[in-house]
């Protein structure tokens, strides 16, 4: 293989690795954002429950529970 062919193969390999690294960083950022959203929802659920812990049901928490379920999928 010629030097030009070697350089071309090296450049394609490097380009592929950069694309993979960029995609992994993007996915990692999405995971971090989802974890923060989940933590915020758990805090909201805890606060809502603590305002009325003796209630039989907590219909106001249904939206929070649905949001948590969607983020955990």
Task: Supply database-style keywords.
mainly alpha
List the SSEs and their pairings.
Layout: H1 3-51, H2 62-72
In words, what does this structure look like?
By secondary structure, the protein is an all-alpha fold. Helix content is 82%, strand content 0%. It has two helices and no strands. It has helices at residues 3-51, 62-72. Helix 1 runs antiparallel to helix 2. The mean pLDDT is 81.
Q: Brief overview, please?
A:
The protein has helices at 3-51, 62-72. The chain has 73 residues and is mostly helical.
Helix content: over 70%
Helix- and strand-based class? mainly alpha
State Rg. 24 Å
Mean pLDDT: 81
Strand content: under 5%
- Which consecutive residue ranges, at least 5 long each, have pLDDT under 50? none
Q: Which H/E pattern describes the elements?
A: HH
Outline, from the CA principal axes?
Answer: rod-shaped
Total strands = 0
- N-C termini distance: 48 Å
Taking the sheet with the most strands, its summary is: none
